[in-house]
Amino acid sequence: MKRLKMTIGVLITSLSVIGCSGFLDETPDNRTKIDSPEKVGEVVTLAYPKGTFIEFADVMSDNAVDSEKISVENVSNTEAFFWEDIRSESQDSPTYYWNACYKAIAQANTAIEAADKMEAELQSKGRTAELQKNWGYKGEALVARAYAHFMLVNLWAKTYNPATASSDMGIPYTRTVETTLLPAYERNSVQEVYDFIEEDLLEGLDLIEYLERSPATEKFHFGVESAKAFATRFFIYKGNFDKALEYSENIPVNGSTLRDLTYYGSLGTEEVQVLYSDPSETTNLLISSVMSNKAYTGGGRYNFRRAAADAFLFSTDSNPFGKSWNFGTLAYTVSEQFLGRPKFVRSFEVTDPTNQTGFRYTNVVLFSNDMLYLDRIEALISTNQLSEALAMLNVFTKRSTINAGSGDVLTEAKLLAVGSSTTIDPFYASELSDKQKAYLGYLADMRRRESYLEGIRWFDVRRYNMELVHRNTYNSSREEILTKDDNRRQLQIPQMAISNGIPANPR
């Protein structure tokens, strides 16, 4: 496809440009010199997006209806529900996440460049221990750079389809440190972005094995296990299921690394909130503390109110054993949003002790053994290894069901009988049998329950090519349909970027 040139203002906001200008105006002697592997590691710490997609992505999916609670209506929530361009640039908005991703990428690029410059010197001096540490941090930076671009391309560009990826507009893939104020960038095709992600990811996986971190901080950084979980997800999205199986082969089939929902059921709300994203929780592979109001808000008008959640997602009719799902029953009193299992713990960074003002943070789980387990099942189904997939689905279903006993066994007949709320029509649909599609539909519903409120469902809506209908039940004359080829499936490029020359996504 024709590459599109743009300036730095496309990637970051005007405030960030001012910050960049100030940095470039300083003499090199006034900048921090990255001259040791430890300093590379410090830079990599900031190579993770400090924003999140979960709020707008969940509302855009089929995990939202009109609660009719007009007292809690807000503009961004309404715009997300009707797939309108979200104008807000504050926390939890698409623009905020776009900027957060590119800021993280800039940190990753700085770390990679510094690690590359030190490598030859460390090798020539035979400083093996430092060299390996340097490799480890570079590997983490490469995986982090791949991850941020992966999230960007799967929100602002069309979903990957090998038949059209070379002509579909993607997002800019930046791999160098900026040395001028207004460098030209290219809006790469979706295929190019996926190729670059794979290149960074595989190189990073080779190097990240050298990385050693303390147990207190390791789950806030990509390591071997979380990088493999990311690789599994990436290859599923790309349709390379053999590769996905390769990177998920160590996940225990017996479910020993899954979240213990029975234990969670014995805890209080605040205890569950803390434990869900705690590094001590075995299932958690990568955790991020992001600037977000998610843990502070009670939900907007458009959410998955309890009645809808029970009807479409958590009803006993959808359980193959006819029992209750083990995902919680709490609901807010104002918006009536179904909470299920409390997932988000909040923290507050005080910047002004006198006025007690500062920044709100929410801990989110980016990768877990729970989701990796489901991703591996998807790869098994897609390669027609249905007996192995059914065995794992049985483990996951029993673990997710209250009081599941030894007599409760998920058979293929039960799976087919219970049906699914998910229509499977990905780019490789012609290669799937009707039975495989049924299995994938069941799996997608399990992922929908497991990842509820985490925004993951929106990515499944896109890559499974699902049609959605959002109805305004308070004012029934309004109904919006998101067809399979609707351009609103791609978020609009931030206005600052459009103003600086990058073409907007078509509407």
Summarize, please.
The chain is built from 18 helices and eleven strands. The chain has helices at 14-25, 37-44, 54-60, 75-81, 94-124, 128-156, 190-208, 224-238, 241-247, 261-265, 269-276, 306-312, 369-382, 386-399, 412-418, 434-450, 456-463, 495-499; strands spanning 5-6, 65-66, 185-186, 284-291, 302-303, 330-331, 338-340, 346-352, 357-368, 468-471, 479-482.
Plain-language structure description:
It holds the Pfam family SusD-like_3. Keywords: Cell outer membrane, Membrane, Signal. Residues 1-19 form the signal peptide. One of its GO terms (cellular component) is cell outer membrane. Residues 23-235 form the SusD-like N-terminal domain. A hairpin with a 4-residue loop joins β8 and β9. The protein contains 18 helices and eleven strands. The relative contact order is 0.15. α2 runs parallel beside α6 (128-156). A three-stranded antiparallel beta sheet has the order 4-9-8. It has helices spanning 14-25, 37-44, 54-60, 75-81, 94-124, 128-156, 190-208, 224-238, 241-247, 261-265, 269-276, 306-312, 369-382, 386-399, 412-418, 434-450, 456-463, 495-499; strands at residues 5-6, 65-66, 185-186, 284-291, 302-303, 330-331, 338-340, 346-352, 357-368, 468-471, 479-482. It has a domain at 1-49 and 103-212 and 483-507: Serine Threonine Protein Phosphatase 5, Tetratricopeptide repeat (Alpha Horseshoe), CATH 1.25.40. It is globular, with a radius of gyration of 23 Å. 43% of the residues lie in helices and 9% in strands. It has 507 residues and is mainly α.
